[in-house]
Design brief:
The protein is an all-alpha fold. 28% of the residues lie in helices and 0% in strands. It is built from 1 helix and no strands. The chain starts with 17 loop residues before the first helix and ends in a 42-residue tail after the last helix.
Length: 82
């Protein structure tokens, strides 16, 4: 098998890259956070059976030329108007 001077060389035995240290640091930080969380305490919610809701309804009257005509009746299925 041929090799070239531009081929990646395998790391020597016992060498660790920067990625290994980053992963180790992140894993230790997550473990430390998990260990500290129970000591800090927990949060809870107070649930009640009442609530206060404020609702505002605003209406507007549109100007028209006259009174609105009554709706035209539409025939039901199978019926016709005479």
């Amino acid at each position: 098998m041929r090799s070239s001077s531009t081929d990646a060389r395998p790391a020597p035995a016992g060498a660790t890259g920067a990625g290994t240290w980053v992963r180790l640091t992140v894993a230790l930080l997550v473990a430390a956070a998990a260990a500290v969380t129970p000591a800090v305490g927990s949060t809870s919610a107070v649930l009640t059976d009442t609530d206060d809701v404020t609702t505002t309804v605003t209406t507007r009257t549109w100007a028209t030329d006259g009174p609105t005509p009554p709706p035209t009746p539409t025939p039901g299925p199978g019926k016709t108007t005479e």
